[in-house]
Amino acid sequence: MAETSPFGDAQSLLTEPKLEFAFEVRLHFARVQTISDMPTGSNRGAVYLDGGEFAGPRLRGKAVPNSGGDYAQFRPDGVVSFDARYMLQEDDGTLILLRNQGYLWGRRPDTMDRLRKMAFEGGPAVDFSEYYLRAFPTFEVAKGKHDWLMRYAFVGIGERKADGNLIRYYAVL
Question: Could you give all domains of the chain from N- to C-terminal order, each with its CATH number?
Answer without folding.
Answer: 19-172 (2.40.160.20)
